[in-house]
Specification:
CATH architecture: 3-Layer(aba) Sandwich
Strand order of the largest sheet: 3-2-1-4-5-6-7
CATH topology: Rossmann fold
Oligomer: single chain
Distance between the termini: 39 Å
Mean pLDDT: 98
Structural class: alpha/beta
Largest sheet: 7 strands, parallel
Number of strands: 7
Bound molecules: NADP nicotinamide-adenine-dinucleotide phosphate
CATH superfamily: NAD(P)-binding Rossmann-like Domain
Number of helices: 9
Low-confidence stretches: none
Helix content: 40-55%
Number of domains: 1
Length: about 250
Amino acid sequence: MERSIIVTGASRGIGRAIALGAATEGYQVCVNYAHNAEAAREVISLIEAAGGTAIAVQADMTKEADILLMFETVDQELAPLGALVNNAGIVDKAAKVSEMSLERLERMFTTNITGPFLCAREAVKRLSTAHGGKGGGIVNISSVTAKLGSPNEYVDYAASKAAIDAMTMGLAKEVAAEGVRVNAVRPGVVYTDIHASGGEPNRVDRVKSMVPMQRGGEAAEIADATLWLLSDKSSYVTGSLIDVSGGR
Ligand code: NAP
């Protein structure tokens, strides 16, 4: 049976790797992005060139109307939804809590918490057997910062990921008997553009000596764990937080 998957923030970085991997696993893929249509189109081209099916859908995770339209577009254009990966997320410039503005905190929490909650809500309405669905999987991309706290850099970001961990554990229990498994992957430092957006493009190389394995991670390594959690090979796993962080 054909199923589709929504990967938020799939135009670049970890989301891109998950979208490409999901297509290889046979999913029809919704490649969500916020601004970078060209990067999203490139992901679509790669999937189509390999014989897969994918659509690019612009939707800002801070806007409920965008999220609703994204799910409706998938309902109309792709196979029934089988999975959601809540991947889109942001960091901000390194700062102490004493320096954080209300605007910064609202942007962080709306993007990294409210957006994933709204997407999870819409996915459950489609996946849960209690709502007439056929079951499926949700994977939230969290971060090891949820347990480290990220002092002097971005406690706000770490707190947003701790909220995602709590949502993962709570929602997993809510829908466990309805055919839906909900898990989280917690990456360590991974080579993507996110560090440049936080003002430090070379952050991975600066902090990699703090990683027990002495290296940064690759987006494909996060994608592999995510795809395992969506596969039948993890059929008894729900409410789990899987660290993919080189031992950090
Ligand atoms: P990235 O390279 O900065 O890519 C971010 C992606 O999210 C892009 O596709 C971007 O779309 C999209 N996005 C950003 N804001 C959005 C919004 N408001 N609505 C919809 N899409 C939005 O990030 P990444 O490093 O791959 O991170 C992916 C996830 O992994 C995040 O949740 C991040 O917190 C988590 N993570 C990353 C690391 C790491 O070291 N990289 C470590 C731990 C956790 P556009 O291309 O349109 O801008």
